[in-house]
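chain below, 589 aa
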Amino acid sequence: MPERQDARNRAGEGEPAVGVAGGSLAMRLRSRLTSVVGVAAVVAAVVALGAVAPAAAYNLHTLAAIGSIDSISVEYDGQDDRPLLHIVGWAGDLNGPGSNGDAADPAGVELYTPGAGGSRTTVAWAEYGSFDYPRPDVARNYPVGPNQGFEVHTLAPRTGALNVCLRFYSFAAYPESALGLSCTTVNIPSQRPAFRPALTGAATAGSALTLGLSTPSGGSDRYSWWSQNVSGVPIPHNWWSQVPGATGTSFTTTLDLIGSYVRGMVTTVLPGVVIEQATDYLQVAPPLTTQDRVSASDRFATSVAASQKAYPDGTAGVPVAYIASGIEFPDALSAGAAAAKLHGTLLLTMPGALDTRVAAELVRLHPARIVVVGGTNALSDQVVADLKALPFATTVDRIAGSDRFAVSRAVVADAFGASVPDLFLVTGAAFPDALAAAAAAASTGRPVLLTDGRLGALDPATRAALSGWGTTHVTIAGGPVSVSPGIQSDLASAGIAVTRAAGGDRFGTAAALAAALPSRTAYFANGAAFPDALSTAVLAGAQPGPLLLTRGSCTPVASFTGLVGSGATRAVIVGGYAVQAGDVLDYSC
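prediction:
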């Protein structure tokens, strides 16, 4: 539940709503220290309470308090008819260090109503988080630091005319407080006005919401939109912040607000009172119609689950199955695109022996050919022996090479033949950019070729392979750190057209690839690891779609941008709940 509503609930239980916990040392001491006179008495009081006093408490300075209440509005939250007071102002100590409200300088304000004989009734306190609002306008005029602002939301103690005054206090000063720095009278209606805010529209990112009033207010109305996650706007203690520039009756939710709550606010200026009314809040949803998940207990079982999803008909089987190590990523990157080209599957196993679950999937699909990708360091001879022992007739071949780059070239040549006019070129030194490229390649029937992207020039073996295949176009996946500008320049010099798909990070690169791959379906894998994402190539080969990356607990805005760019409305989450939270697509990050 949003923090603002929590504040109302706390206030309704008799506790002033200040947006922070009420059990801090300063809050426990404030009423006891107010009447204490003299340094010795202050020290004695702190020691008697069993607390460790700040160093400043033993070296008190003279209080020079300043401050003012800027405004008091009467506000109503959603369907709740109880009036709240929204009080904004500032205060500080000209002799203080200028860091109001922190542990080194415990200070705050009390908002109260004055009574007979100098008595006062507290309306609200502002300390710590609610007394930490930047007020550069005050800082320009007074040398008391940048955080003199306070903002509180608290239940109104009664209706009618209410005189609210400001007291500033500092436990590092003597006297400890200054009363009546500013007083303002607010007129609280005896009942909520008849005009109510109304919010219509869908809270799906990219959709428009409309704000209006149920009946005319008879005053001057201003409209604004608020959220708990406004890009570029700091939000103290998860409070609501106004969306910059959103001041009309219509508001289109954005991708960065996915998972956040939004609401509209109508501020009505009437004679003698300002009324603020907030609508009920809505949670912004991702622009998806359906969400599915392909997962299992571990990476090896997930590769089996992906194979079963891509090829549900075991009777029909597949012509070929590629077997790659689930411990390292390079060999599987090229193998996934090769499997998709040949309408086959890719399965992952441990290096020492064939995973029994993989063996069962091979029996179900009974491929006429099995390709073991990588040398004996990647997959042992025992894996080959286990494959040859499967209870159906099959051919088992191993594709190996001197390194991952040689293996990649051999896999491409084996699956795509002597002519490869177009391919994806990725670095073999890291997996993030290559994962999305493998899914894009599988979706479009192109190969993935690994190169050492750290080199300043195209290596001779890759140059010879491209020349022999008659390659005329290459899509580089990743920025210049992944695949150097020198490699791109050498490709161009060889007469090969080059397209670079890149973003600011792995999420942006995946999004850039997705934008060039229109599809109804998009796949989402954890961008911090490679195993589950490797299986996406099999899925993308059977049902084309881009691979976008998550952080496991939320999805970067860049990935949602790629989703919109591809036109996909169906999402398939690849990976179990240990690596991909159940609501990973419901929150942007």
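The chain has three domains: 3-188, 197-283, 290-586. The two ends are 19 Å apart (CA to CA).
thats it, cya
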